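Consortium newsletter contribution from the modelling node. Members have asked for a concrete example of what our holo predictions look like. Here is one, prepared for the 6-O-phosphono-alpha-D-glucopyranose complex that several groups have been discussing at recent meetings.
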Amino acid sequence: MPSALAVASNRGPLSFSRTPDGDLAVRRGAGGLVSALGSAMRGRDALWVAAALSDGDREAAYASGGAVEREGFRVCLLDIEQATYDRYYNEIANRFLWFVCHYLWEPSRAPSVGPAEREAWASYQDVNRRFARAVAEGTGEAAPAMLQDYHLALAPRMLRESRPDLRIALFWHIPFPEPDYMSLLPDAWTHELLTGMLGADLVGFQTRRWARNFVECVRELLGAKAARAVQHEGRQSRIGIYPVGVDPEHLATSAADPAVKKEKAILRRWLGDRRLVLRVDRTELSKNILRGFGAYELLLERRPDLHGKIAHLALLTPSRRDVPEYREYIAECEAGAKRINERFASVDWEPLRVEIEDNFPRALAAYGMYDVLVVNPVFDGMNLVAREGPTLNRNNGSLVLSRNAGAWEDLRSAALGVNPFDVEGTSAAIERGIDMPAEERRERAVRLRRLARGKPPSRWLERQIKDLPPPA
Ligand code: G6P
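And here is the predicted structure:
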């Protein structure tokens, strides 16, 4: 039966795997997007279209003969041939769109588009078409269809062509670049991306800044008329701002798990009574890990009195290891960390520990303990670490926060803001976090905790549905 609501995202809410005794086990899908949407979608008459990401997912899709119904979700998993998927996901979504939206290229070298990239673009079009088709087939008359993120930029227009009755929204979870940087993509791609997105009735962003950049892009690069809505080719798309934060109750429950207590004890043994400078990130270029380490190194150079009294922990979750730029970047981060330890370590002091593993209980434990949390992304749509940390911290910890993170808009009055490219400035902010008088620390931490808990994901989807045009 067609659903009263559809959502489509590359990663789905469930991930399946075959157990040794032959059953299909199900786990929650990974990532922030899934947790934001998951709580809003569970138990609704809604279809969730996602890509099958593993053999277990593919088996689950075949076994159900259509949509899989588990854990309060109805999920349609698209079985996309591996080579096509790689070109769509690794090449276009992760190497091109992620890079252009986070300003990660050095234009003297990249991007460079040749026949292989054009072939990858064709796969991106193809996968977007498949998503649009699945939504079109599974969604009821005039229902809201909520498409997610840069993986599906072309799908709104494709969906509109086959189902003009649907009320279509696209939410862009990451930053959007200014027109000059957007123009590093081939003209035809830019045109297709922008017009693809404008196939939606509503295009949503995390903050005003990314929405403004999008509006400037469609004005300059498409010649569209735009203010709060964009008029193009006889249609109108509304532009909306829907910041998505964390779910404080869910976080508190997760942090109360016995596994977190165990991790806390492990960290305490390593840290002793030293002050903790923490970062928690995916192994990812936009997170600016290397400059963060550089800032810490400058601090150790400047302040011998802090040697042995502070320690820096970097908890990094592996991500997108099939993309060469990511592998190279992480190797550089590890080399940087090694150099810092070689320069400053003593028999009983490890100045910087880098852990590359997926260990959420350890991150939750560390959130409770830090003195300074460093969140210095080059650019970031929102950044949930900047909200999770202060929500769980019990130590009046300071937050060093990039002014290019979406979270900055909400947290600016209580965080220590940094220009993420300025290593010396970042170093000074970490130092300020460490030296801050107790009263100021407490006052800022109280404010941070309150601000960080704002914008819970529960109402996020509802607000967008409400802003769609009424059924015709
Ligand atoms: C980050 C972004 C999301 C994006 C996700 C994809 O979490 O904030 O907007 O959808 O990355 O990650 P993946 O691991 O699926 O490539």
